[in-house]
Amino acid sequence: MALGLVFTTAAAYLGLRVAHALAGVAVPSGRLVATLALMGVAFLLLYALANAVRRRPTWMEAAQRLDLEAGRHNRVAIALALLHDPDERPFAAAAICDGIDQLRRIAHERPALDAWTVPWRRFVGLASAASVLVVLGLLLPPLGHGPPMMHRPEAPTVADLAATPRPTAAPPVRMPEPVVAPASRPQGASRESGRAAGRKAQPLRVPDRPALAGNSGRGAAAEASDVDYAAGGQGESTGSPSESPRPDRSIRPTKRSPSRQSRIADRRRSEETQPDDSTVSRGGAGGGTMLPVVNTWSRRAETTENQPTEDRDADEDIEDENEANRQRGGVQPTLKDRNEAPSRELGISGDQGPPGAGRGGPTPPKKSRGTASLVLGVPVPDFVKGRLGPGTTKVTHERIRPAPMEGTPATGSPATPPSGPEAPAHRRDVPAPVARLVRDYLIALHSADAVARTPAGAPASQATAAR
Amino acid sequence: MTAAEAERQAERFREVFARLRAEVHKVFVGHDELVGHVLSVLLSDGHVLLEGVPGLGKTLLARTLASALRLSFSRIQFTPDLMPADIVGTMMLHEKEGGGHELRFAEGPLIANFILADEINRATPKTQSALLESMQERQVSVARRTIRLPEPFIVVATQNPIEQEGTYPLPEAQLDRFLVKLLVGYPTEREYHDILQRTTDVHTPSVEPVSSAEEILAMRRVVRSVPVTEQVRAYAIRIVMATQPGSPYAPAAVRRAVALGASPRGAQGLLLMGKVRALCDGRFAVSCRDIRDVALPVLRHRLLLSFEGQSERANPDDLVRAAVESVSELT
After folding, report:
1. Neighboring chain A residues of B245 at a CB cutoff of 8 Å
2. Which regions of A228-287 does DSSP assign to beta strands (E)?
């Protein structure tokens, strides 16, 4: 148990470190985690030790262990159980006497109870896994520097920016006015606050809140979101963005791994901005050419409707079966795997059936029981192919008596051998080495066949002779 | 009744058991454990299914046991054309003495104490099913008439495992009604000598009845009075549950190869056979060892193999052994 706890603690530690490295989840320092884990392990060990010392086996457990060791048909445990049985049968009394005799007989024998063995394999496995997890956790970036979202460097003050050598080639760039300001806050207020902040030359501190709904970042540096944080110095009070010091790469929010909360919030915002009751948006009111777009709610509804009915029925069947099993007090035998009922047909079948099936093999295919099977040898077609009408063509058979016809007889000519060149297939100009090679190959091939056909143990010569 | 009386009854039980066994062994050579199991079933109020290749003495064992008991004996040779009415009986038209006719019930061979169902798998399932009611409820129903069967009632059935052509394996409901399924094997070399000497000589041994129906019923009552403790009962239940693939006690082999495990009848059979075994061993209560010893004959025919089990040619005996080994005696 303690080893399992160590393993769990190591895994949790590694998980925290990974979460810290990836998503910036705040974790306490490594020393504190290790101290807490060790304290937990020590507590559990002490608890287990105290429990083991305090707990004593019951009389029945001791009797069962004694019987198991002595191998005397559970006589002691039976006697002990029947001693507390209110149903006093004569055979129970006899069994109790028998158990007492057995106890007297083995009173001087020291039972060799099972020695406790250390589960070395499990121990080594868990310890190795815990060690690997701890080492992996230690290989991650140290906790002392802090996660990117928790220990952000302070934003430069205006005085710091003024002290920073300004590149000469870079003229100050004014950010254009945003065309659309969807933020709830008035743009003028944002600008005013930014100017006021610039006049007071207060340091622009990044708020500790990790995620805020950001806008264009124009002067509202205090309300900048994670994404807008990098442009926090672009307000009017801080000058051009080229003058602001480049923030640390580690604190730049990456789009590849946004936090889960921000993703969920974005999704909710996108869903809330779309009308709930409409399934298809028709584009702009001015008759735009945009194609209708199905929003997510309608897609969701479509997904639910298009789900295969068979799958849902199968799931419901499984749930019903589980519920029925639960109500009947446990898992019931699965009759799905039951074999097909053997055929009871009388008759001689051809193949030998599987051993144990007892049916003498598969039966012939089932015969038809329709009317057609009753009239032997008379095929009864199901339908007749043809046209209802008489058609446009007609075949007429005329009966004409055969009559001799006049003609010139054919003249025969004597057969002469062909005088032309021999056909290429009949040429025998194969070189002698090739012919010998082919001959050897064929002989070897047929001799190999003969060996293969020879029974085990018989020489190949016999097979050749037989052939 | 005191403990001394119980000891006296147990002693009497052992005497009758040994007497029956000795009488059977006058004719049936060897297979002492097999004979012991058959006698245990007789005294447990159950039925026996003997399976073995031809020539091993299955029918001889049943006939010898029937001869050793003063019981009404019926032998039914199961054939493919046997009908249920041939076993149970039917209404027949009789001519009255004063004229006219009447229907009378003609009892079939099933209405007897000791039934030898020879080659039971050669009859059709329809005929085999005629035994269902009689084996479980000890009665037969013909038309509107219900006939109680005489007590004790025992069916000893034989079947051949290799001749499968033209045979009909017993349905699961029928198999489950047999308390045990015993496999009759080949005798040893020494037993061959005894068999040849007894069967090819001029003097053939004869069997005398050594027990009666009343004595058998009394012994059955003694068997029923043997106590079973909670530990042993739980052990038997867990073994039976371990043969069911959906049970938490089932080992991996059972989960893979068994489609249908043993029923509560299997647990009943374990306890009843264990009681007889304890009495024969001179003890007064059933132990876990008794349950283990009778697990194979009681449970082997109650397992229905799955497709995987059949394809792997799983042996039910191995599966029962795996189930027994997976269950611990300790509660």
Report:
1. 333-334
2. 280-281
Task: Please say whether the beta carbons of A19 and A138 come within 8 A.
Answer: no
Q: Do A332 and B231 touch (CB under 8 A)?
A: no
Pairwise CB contact (< 8 Å): B227 & A97:
no
Q: Which is more confidently placed, B248 or A182?
A: B248
Beta-carbon count within 10 A of A51 CB: 9
The residue type at A442: L
Q: Are A191 and A226 in contact (CB under 8 A)?
A: no
Range in A83-92, B65-74, B261-270 the model is least confident about: A83-92
* Element at A61 (helix H, strand E): helix A59-70
Sign for the CA dihedral angle at A83, A84, A90, A92 comes to negative
What distance lies between CA B32 and its chain's CA centroid?
A: 16
Question: How far is the C-alpha of A431 from the C-alpha of A436, rounded, in Å?
Answer: 9
B210-243 pLDDT, tens digit each: 888 889 999 999 999 999 999 999 999 999 999 9
CB-based contact B67:B26 (threshold 8 Å): no
A353 interface with B at CB cutoff 8 Å: yes
Q: What is the CA radius of gyration of chain B?
A: 21
B100's tokens: 């006219």
String of DSSP letters for B263-305: -HHHHHHHHHHHHHHHHHTT-SS--HHHHHHHHHHHHGGG-EE
Q: Tell which phi-psi region holds residue B100, choosing left (phi > 0), alpha (psi between -120 and 50) or beta.
A: left
Is residue B22 classed as helix, strand or coil in its secondary structure? helix
Residues of B with Cβ-Cβ distance to A89 under 8 angstroms: 6, 225, 227
Nearest to B226 by CA among A78, A77, A61, A100: A78
- Is-contact A358 B164, C-beta < 8 A? yes
Q: pTM here?
A: 0.53
**Residue A65's beta-bridge partner residues?**
none
Tell me the residue ranges of DSSP E strands in chain B.
48-51, 69-70, 73-77, 89-95, 101-107, 114-118, 139-142, 145-148, 154-159, 180-183, 211-212, 258-260, 304-305
Q: For residue B152, what are the contacts with CB-CB under 8 A and spacing of at least 6?
A: B42, B45, B71, B113, B213, B216, B217, B220
Q: Do B246 and A353 touch (CB under 8 A)?
A: no
Q: Do A360 and B307 touch (CB under 8 A)?
A: no
Exposure class string for A322-359: b at 16+ Cβ within 10 A, else e: eeeeeeeeebebeeebeeeebbeeeeeeeeebeeeebb
The span from the first CA to the last CA of chain B, in angstroms, equals 31
Residue B303 falls in which region: left (phi positive, over 0), alpha (psi -120 to 50) or beta: beta
- Write the ipTM: 0.80
In the beta sheet, which residues pair with residue A281? A293
- Over residues A80-109, the pLDDT tens digits come to 888 887 777 788 888 888 888 888 887 777
CA A210/CA A228 separation, integer angstroms: 12
Q: State the DSSP H helix or E strand holding residue A273, giving kind and residue range, or none if neither.
A: helix A260-273
Residue B67, classified by CB atoms within 10 Å of its CB into exposed (0-12), middle (13-18) or buried (19+), is buried
Nearest to B49 by CA among B185, B219, B177, B220: B177
* Residue A115 token pair: 């020695």
Residues 216-275 of A with CB under 8 A from B: none
DSSP type of residue B201 = S
Q: Is the model more confident about A460 or about B178?
A: B178
Least trusted range by pLDDT, from A27-36, A45-54, A297-306, A404-413 = A297-306
Phi-psi region of B225 (alpha: psi -120 to 50; beta: other; left: phi over 0): alpha
CA distance B69 to B312: 44
